[in-house]
Amino acid sequence: MRLDKKDMVLYAVTDRHWLNGESLYSQVEKALKGGATFIQLREKNLGEEEFLAEAKEIARLCKSYHVPFVINDNVEIAKKVDADGVHVGQSDMEALDVRKTLGEDKIIGVTAKTVEQALKAQAHGADYLGVGAVFGTTSKADATKLDHKVLKEICETVDIPVVAIGGITEENVTELAGNGICGVAVISAVFGQPDIEQATKELKEKVEGMLK
Fold it and tell me: Is 140 annotated as a binding residue?
């Protein structure tokens, strides 16, 4: 699957913290209905069997919406469910090794916080970068806030698409204008909202306006 910059506009990352008795599947479907352009399944504490079953279902769902679907960190599960790719952090598997496991036609995203990390990821075959945290965030305890100058510098240095991540909301997203990003990756701004479909729709409009 080739990655199009348009796919990166609104990148939604799952989190079962906000399920409140609902299934992750139905929440992802609401985000897709609201216009999410990319889905990442992020599971930190789910057993392998449940993770695999859930990944299969959500992979099918994303296919039916023609939206790229990647799995956070777990290269084996991504391979088993034939996901579109994987997203890895700096402490996870190297992009080079992920590429060897998944093959040439899969999407590989890498988290980067510095120009050096960004260039290395690109050299190792990453298809896109997630850069942040651009604002303070509650979903990652160890995330330190990144200077927006660094974000801009990374966008100017690499040739692959960059999405900003970390603490992005409908209220602050316009502050990211002019940095050269292709879109934003969010968790709570979509999945932590009472009306996921509507929140996704409104956020997407804001992001598209900011990217113009």
Answer: yes
